[in-house]
Amino acid sequence: MCNLYRMTKNKAEVAAWFDAVDTLGGANFADEVFPGYPGLVVAGGNLRSMVWGFPLQRKDKTGQPLKPKPVNNARSDKLDGFFWRQSFEQRRCLIPLTAWAEAEGPSGSKTRSWMSLPGGELFAVAGIWRPSDEWGAVYSMVMTEAEGPAAAIHSRMPVVLAREDQALWTSGAPDQARALCSAWSGDLTIDRSGEPWSGRGQVALL
Question: In sequence order, which residues have a C-beta less than 8 Å from that of residue 160 and are 6 or more positions away?
Fold first, then answer.
């Protein structure tokens, strides 16, 4: 599952690439996005800031509430489940990024392996979003079974959307959108960086 991605383009570049309206004013964003932190999302034709991860309520052994856990990945085969269904049917979005990372290597010494499109170009992966009481607007990244070079790193990968499929993902019927949930068949660049893997916070996958 994806718990870290890069978005190294500026807001103006992203808005122009997606033909989206920038509603963010002077907001700035980190180049690397972790679960539970803000990221850029294109929803309803607008460039928006949302928190990465749907809040999952938890309690300790005594029944006292704990800090919610961000569920940042939505499995494509679970989109009809209660946790995701309404968002998938009514609020699909595009997540702009330039690369995503997976942890690779032995436990205790995992490193970051980055995957991107050739040339480091901007691209979009499938997302869903909803409002929340805890963190405001939140989004989750749709994951599918990995194939090709990505499968050597992790069993799942984000649903990378070809440019011509982006409007169908956001505005098509649920069955049309579901048909797009397959592994990317184009070229991928893999950078086994050797950077130590270090995530932030707690994450979950449903």
Answer: 117, 123, 124, 125, 184, 186
> Which DSSP letter does residue 197 get?
P
pTM to 2 decimals?
Answer: 0.92
Question: 43-55 burial, b for 16+ CB within 10 Å, e for fewer?
Answer: beeebbbbbbbbb
The CA-atom distances, in angstroms, between 119 and each of 57, 77, 176, 194 are 40, 31, 30, 20
Domain ranges for the chain:
5-205
pLDDT, tens only, 141-165: 999 999 999 999 999 999 999 999 9
The answer to whether 64 and 98 are in contact (CB under 8 A) is: no
Beta-carbon contacts of 175 under 8 Å, excluding residues fewer than 6 positions away, are: none
- Classified by CATH at the fold level, domain 5-205 comes out as hypothetical protein yedk fold (3.90.1680)
